[in-house]
Amino acid sequence: MAEVNVKILNSIINDGDRILIDKIDDSYLSDALGRIKGHADVVLFPVNVDEVSKIMRYAWENQIPVTPRGAGTNLVGSTVPVEGGIVLDLTRMNQIIEFDEETMTATVEAGVVLADFQEYVEAKGCFYPPDPGEKTATIGGNISTNAGGMRAVKYGVTRDYVRGLEVVLANGEILWVGSKNVKDASGLSLKNLIVGSEGTLAIITKCILKIIPKPEVTLSVLLPYRDVKTAIPGVLTIIKENANPTAIEFIERDVIKLGEDYTGLSFPYPKAGAYILMTFDGRSLELEGNVERVKKSAIKQGALDVLILDSEELLMNVWKIRGCFVKAVEAVSEQEPVDLVVPVNKIVEFISYVSEYEKKSGMRMIRFGHAGDGNIHLCMVRGNRSDDKWEKELQEHLNAIYQKAFLLGGLTSGEHGIGLSKRIFYLKETAPQNLELMRQMKRAFDEREILNRHKTYLA
């Protein structure tokens, strides 16, 4: 690897405020947790695709590693620069370029913040459904990890809303993959290879996104249960009833208590052991019928009550508590967040295993998640363990938890991605033939392997 020539990079950027060389803040060298830290020779802030192209061409010619990043909200080390080189921060490429009502698409730069984009389209009477928990993430980052969120059970994930991408390849070449067209059976889908690739194949610079009409009404319903073993089977029945919920969350009472302590708010029906929190959206008459079906089904399946969250204050409090769990755990202790998936009919078995394993291991494991799609979030809590004990026990317990998920037909990640921190488990679970095909694709896109090295499937 050649040394980074700052003079050449200055000639490309031509703006001292968009180049960091000395005293690079740790936030540019890590992820949202800040525990895995890399190093970089320079951080660059391009403002257009031509600058990205020239930077990549320079890096390609000199075999300099490049780590692309958006807002850095990832939790698995995806934006950690492992081998130095260039960190390419795309947050200043943040323009909404076009809103096309005729094709129901919007074209945006990769650095547009999710919350800003959702607010923009909703002001126009439209809706962008992907809704991961971290709303300050960028659209490019969401696409790079194929972010999901609570609304995935009805609307799908980020991939389902990406029509086209402008990308810069490792050698600096600019190309478009996908388009505004609804259908595309024209060859291999390069667009879908890039979605979820965590910056290992290309730099995303612009995105054509599908938008839909804004739902008329939104309504949330809370179902308290004796315990999670009673609650989850009720979810499967609700799904079969075709009540079409937007979100289905399962939460145990001890997790709610953490959220209450963190926010200072109160959750309804405190005597329950577990809850199912559901959202419905659509037309008023449609919602009335769906909620009525849920009421009847839930009571039959053991729900202690059916609470319609029709007070704005109550609704805000409930969702604020639900949205703070990872931060609430972090406020108590260092923790390792895990987001794995199991088939929906295996959720109870997996949660039961985790509960028993928690008692046996002595490590607290906070659990909640998206009951409608099997995406389970675990927070492995450090407590007062020493550095050595934490590192040893964490790896031991993670191995056991992932192994159980794999035995049930589950996968390493539902929405956080693989990055650095999940590589060991992902590589263990994925067939060698699959990994080799992925590495061949990597070499086809980036023969010199300069983009986001040592991440996900990379050796």
Automatic annotation (TrEMBL):
UniProt entry keywords in alphabetical sequence: FAD, Flavoprotein, Oxidoreductase
Stored PROSITE patterns: FAD_PCMH
GO molecular-function terms, A-Z: FAD binding; oxidoreductase activity
Domain FAD-binding PCMH-type: 36-214
Cofactor: FAD
Keyword Flavoprotein: yes
Taxonomic lineage: Bacteria, Bacillati, Bacillota, Clostridia, Lachnospirales
Name of the protein in its database record: FAD linked oxidase domain protein
